[in-house]
Inverse folding.
């Protein structure tokens, strides 16, 4: 006790008050860290998502609230230094509302962003529009937080809102191309002609996977591992082939030709047998699919037909077609079914033509 009294004579009252507040803040921050880390570990073990998100989102806001509590305690501690009291009273009138609004804005932003990230894995629409939805929600939360903060500090927001209305019109005119791309991106997300992860083909010929649908542009990763960045306004007006919509399963046509002397019934049976076996044994085949054969052309050298297989997605067609051609070629040899070379035949009897010998006559 004597030491505290002697320390009180040596140090000013405001220094002791600051030291006491710092000790309280440090102790509360330590308790918060210990308790919250324990709760986060327990939440991570549970099957629920929002408890873990809540504890992670509340960490930084709790620190801001503890600092607000420290400022409040510092105001209530007695100090004989009048200048110090004036500084504290003037600072707390601004510091505490700012800290509290920042804590609320940060908490809401983390909760909304975490919720969007969580449900984006369950919804194809939300997964495609995650960046845009997060951007809109973040702008909304920060905008409302700014207005609340200005109102709390006694600043009238009515003239500010009126000014924003007039200024937004000028900004909209100046940023017309950007806004056009933005609303085109929203249209792509709502209409969902493409989604993140889809394999598409543009009318300009590029093919690739949709990597991201952003505010201004859509990123498409092509087969050579390059990225095509298309403005949303251009993409929304383009003709697009989506190979993953409405399903990834796609037909794989294979063109085949056989000799005119072939028994077409036998050819059809052999082809269907091999095609069905491929569908059941190949890793990329669709076992439930019944292959179909269509004879369609009397060609110059062969009778042509098409075999319809099915693959699980776009890239599988190349592997299925290659495997089927090798398998069918081997089976045709076993069945003595001929795939003819291109032939040009001259029928002299049908055309009533006479061939003249080019050799000189003997004397």
């Amino acid at each position: 006790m004597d030491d505290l009294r002697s320390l009180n004579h040596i140090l000013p009252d405001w220094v002791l008050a600051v030291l006491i507040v710092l000790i309280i803040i440090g102790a509360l921050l330590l308790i918060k860290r210990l308790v919250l880390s324990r709760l986060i570990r327990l939440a991570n073990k549970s099957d629920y998502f929002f408890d873990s998100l809540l504890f992670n989102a509340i960490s930084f806001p709790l620190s801001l609230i503890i600092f607000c509590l420290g400022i409040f305690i510092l105001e209530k501690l007695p100090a004989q230094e009048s200048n110090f009291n004036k500084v504290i009273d003037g600072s707390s009138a601004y510091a505490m509302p700012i800290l509290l609004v920042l804590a609320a804005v940060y908490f809401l932003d983390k909760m909304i962003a975490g919720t969007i990230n969580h449900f984006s894995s369950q919804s194809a629409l939300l997964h495609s529009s995650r960046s845009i939805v997060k951007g809109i929600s973040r702008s909304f939360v920060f905008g409302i937080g700014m207005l609340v903060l200005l109102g709390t500090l006694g600043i009238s927001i009515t003239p500010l809102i009126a000014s924003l209305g007039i200024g937004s019109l000028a900004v909209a005119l100046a940023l017309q191309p950007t806004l056009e791309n933005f609303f085109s991106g929203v249209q792509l997300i709502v209409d969902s002609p493409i989604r993140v992860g889809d394999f598409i083909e543009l009318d300009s010929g590029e093919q690739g996977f949709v990597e991201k649908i952003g505010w201004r542009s859509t990123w498409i990763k092509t087969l050579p591992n390059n990225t095509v960045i298309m403005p949303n306004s251009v993409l929304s007006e383009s003709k697009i082939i989506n190979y993953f919509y409405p399903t990834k399963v796609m037909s794989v046509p294979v063109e085949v030709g056989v000799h005119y002397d072939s028994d077409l019934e036998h050819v059809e049976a052999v082809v269907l047998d091999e095609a069905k076996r491929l569908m059941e044994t190949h890793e990329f085949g669709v076992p439930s699919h019944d292959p179909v054969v269509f004879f369609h052309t009397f060609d110059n050298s062969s009778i042509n037909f098409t075999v319809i297989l099915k693959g699980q997605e776009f890239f599988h067609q190349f592997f299925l077609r290659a495997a089927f051609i090798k398998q069918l070629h081997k089976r045709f040899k076993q069945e003595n079914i001929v795939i003819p070379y291109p032939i040009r035949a001259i029928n002299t009897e049908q055309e009533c033509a006479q061939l003249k010998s080019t050799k000189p006559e003997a004397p």
